[in-house]
Amino acid sequence: MRRVNGFSFALFIAFGAIEYCAAAQLPTAQETAQLDAITIWKIVNTIIFAIGLGYLIAKYAPAFFNARSAEIQKAIHDATGLKIEAEFRSSEIDRKVAGLADEVKKLRQQYAEEMEREHERFRQETQAELEHIQRNIAAEIDAFRLEGARQVRRHTAQLALASAERRLQDRLASEPQDPFVRSFVHLVEQGTK
């Protein structure tokens, strides 16, 4: 309210100063009479204007300033909340940064353990693959050995048969041949072809 009254008073002084400057020029007697009649109405008009302006300011200014004050208080409250939230986030970031070395150490340890598990799994898979390959090679060696032994037996049997055939032929050539022996030799010859 004091502000409104002060403002009204300042306006009144300003209008009065303007009137005084206008009156400082020395008018004639007739002009003075006319000016006196007009000046009274100007003063009355100025006073009515000042009173109306004071009334309007007194009526609407408190509501305007109270609303503005409430907006400012709300903005201060919001800013305080944001400040507290920012400080909380800052403290959380500081806490996380402080624990970052431990987190990195933990991640490295987990990585080393994972690499060790992966290495062990790879070693076991390689060992299993090598054992599988060794079993396959042993089976192939056994198969080749059996095939070789069969071929050697067959070849030995063929050689023994050929040797027996030669002996028989030599013996038959030197002794008189009997039809029974000849049919046997003939059967043997047919079996070798």
Explain what this protein looks like in three dimensions.
This protein is mainly alpha-helical. The chain has 2 domains: 63 residues; 82 residues. Helix 1 packs antiparallel against helix 2. It is rod-shaped and about 195 Å long. It starts with a helix and ends with a helix. The mean pLDDT is 81.
List the helices and strands and how they pair.
Layout (H helix, E strand, L loop, with lengths): L1 H22 L5 H70 L1 H75 L4 H14 L1
List keywords for this structure.
single chain, mainly alpha, 2 domains, 94% helix
Low-confidence stretches: none
**Major sheet characteristics:** none
Q: What structural class is derived from the secondary structure elements?
A: mainly alpha
Helix content: over 70%
Radius of gyration: 65 Å
Give the rounded overall mean pLDDT. Answer: 81
Query: What's the order of the H and E elements?
Result: HHHH
Amount of beta strand: under 5%
Put simply, the count of helices is 4
For the secondary structure, the number of strands is 0
Q: End-to-end span in angstroms?
A: 142 Å
How many structural units, i.e. domains? 2
Shape estimate: rod-shaped
